[in-house]
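protien #1 (seq + structre)
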Amino acid sequence: MKVNELSACLAAAQLYGDGDVEITDLQADSRRVKPGDLFICLPGHTVDGHQYVTQAAASGAVAIVCERKLETTLPQIVVDDSRFAMSVMSNAFFGSPSSKMRMIGVTGTNGKTTTTYLIEQIMQDQNIKTGLIGTIEMRYDGQNYPTSGTTPESLELQRSLHDMAAKGVQCCVMEVSSHAIQQGRVKGTDFRTAIFTNLSQDHLDYHHTMEEYRAVKGLFFSQLGNVISPWKEERKYAVLNADDEASAYFATQTAAEVITYGIDSDANVRASQISISAKGTFFHVRTFKGEADISLRMVGKFNVYNALAAITAALLEDVSLADIKTSLESVAGVSGRVESVDAGQEFAVIVDYAHTPDGLENVLRTVCEFAVGRVLTVFGCGGDRDRTKRPLMGKIAAKYSSLVFVTSDNPRTEDPLLILRDIEAGLEEDGVSHDQYELIADRREAIRKAIEMASPGDVVLIAGKGHETYQLIGGVVHDFDDRVVAKEVIRGRSY
């Protein structure tokens, strides 16, 4: 593809220099530039890609995309927003790969990962070659690739979708974060179905208010169907959680056909007769294609919602309800989501990714439903993130727990003790006794203390990090896995 062809994809872009130069690849990291590449200058929080044009040119870059005209002999496409331009150009350069497969996107505060895994399982069981992109990993064609966030940058996303299409992937299910929506990372991605799980407080360090957070999520649904596909014409679907009040707003923002699911409200797909135990969750589901009894091997009412979203998406892909039931009942669980740690102890240890007020309350409510003895909760809040949720999460932990061990999550560049104090403020505001909680900055020590204090029949919940295998402290990445640490402590415990 030539420089002028890429420039033509962008409204109001200005091209300086030779537009007939052939581009062999796109790069946004100057360290990855190869001869023939176009280098995209991205401004960032700590570094500015515009400062690396000379380095990119020395590595063989033949053109650049930038937000201001630069002193360089290379052809340059000047745009208002290089991150947005990267999304549009990446989609064009890789031939609109999402249009060549069935795209299912899942957005919401909680439940994205589990919902995508359930849909992937259902589709794979139908012998439909399926790719998955999300918080834990990207996987397709028998290969697993680590991810550093919920939704990749647009360049890597389109590159991956192109590779999926080339390898015969027929369906891709992916998590879509609010950051990705606002930054235009999924611009041009041709989703057939957009799913909304729920909306609760998170990322207010980025979005500032819940109204702004909701509005950003709404963009995902307003853009649904706006992509013109040269390969196919098909109906688009917005799958919305009828029990979440944000769904009413999203329904007004989309031109797609709205299909609802829920428990408490009337919906197109609705669950009833819910029964939760330590072994799993039973429910009856009524859909627009029949009814069924389903026994999940995962616990919690929130997993019923995740299953309902997956059921709805699969029905829209013409999978029979009987086949959906078989697939759902075969899923043992998702990494770091209400994951049991068993090392022969006489009490339960659960690791969960819950890192929002709503997520923590959901998992604690679930634990309380099957706990025979006490609930001992270990949790913290991430540094350099929304501070307002910290006291809220402290209150929630104390409300449902016999003992709370407030500890570090990923402090990043913040002082861990100051984060703990923010959480403690919520405990003090509610008048929680100091006998009910303890501040322990060292996460390993907090886990050890909780497990050492557990008795037969108790449940130890370790929340916040789930599947993560690292801890970010002072800008340094340390190896840390809650599940591994818990097993080590259990095996070394004095009974």
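ok now protien #2
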Amino acid sequence: MANVHFGFQKILFKRFSYIILWHVGIVTFTLRLVASINTLEDFFTLSWIKNLFVSNTLAVALFQLFLSAVFIVTESKQYLRVEHRIDFLINIDSIDKDVPFTLKEALATHNVPLLQYLGFYDLNIISQFDGARRKQIFSLSYPGGHPHVWKSISQEAVKLILETNSQLEAITLPPKPKPPEMAAKYSTADEVYFKMRSLSQSHFLQEKMPAENYVDISSKIANFLKTIRPVSFMLEELKEKQLVSALQHYQALSLACYSMANLASASMAEDRFGIVQQDLSVIINALLKLYVTLNKLVVVVNRKPNSSILQIKKHLVHVVKSSLYKLAIDFGPYVKDLSLPAEDEKLFTNFILFKN
């Protein structure tokens, strides 16, 4: 592994040196062009304009290449580390001190989306093509006999699904009005001066406005502000920003849905201990929640059409439906044994009967 990193660094050093030499050459060529000008008429000669255009074009192209090379360096270093270190390492408690990441840690790196995406990409490959590594997922720890590997991986995948669902729900569902505070059983006067004659007149007591009136007034003001065009435009822009923020990890989310469905399907033949069956209802519940929320998202998206958001939304609907259909085909005959809530069981039955 050290040889791979050393060779990669040598290649990057050569690329940077070539780019710097090209920049030096372009600067030298431009200075010679400037030095060749003796009179004002030399500025308008065809050869000088042609050479200046070529030098400027090369300078801009090389500067763009320099920026792309810097991006390649930063991204490739992370990619090499993840691809060569996380790949073929699925154990959570790694004994090898040279290994910076395990698969579980890669899935949990929410602050580094590239590592998280590569972790779910690796998990998707495992769920479809790598039976040897799936065997490690379906294994129990020794000593203890606990499914630590499966628990850590499934929890991170379900967590990503539910977090995205909660963010989308906050956008699609209107905010719930605060319930009015319940009035006290007795007024302050009754509590302190119970069974005592009040010496003050009733019209001197200042009556308080009920809490319901405050809620009605605030809702009316909010609805009136929404009718004003600039305010409504700003609110729509804010919702679109929130939607983009919620869907920014849609690629990792898609891989998480596919991975959970494929692992659950493979567990029918490969899970000797039945560890996946315990969390099957949690996976189905998370996917059904996301499916319902994405269907409600149509109203928000159609208010202001955005091609990229629409494409991402259609892609996620396709991913979630495919995952649910895969689970419905494999576990349809056992739907009564999954201990699903009544609503989820009814919706999942529609997938079993191919009604969605």
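Residues 1-8, 70-97, 182-187, 190-194 have pLDDT under 50 and may be disordered.
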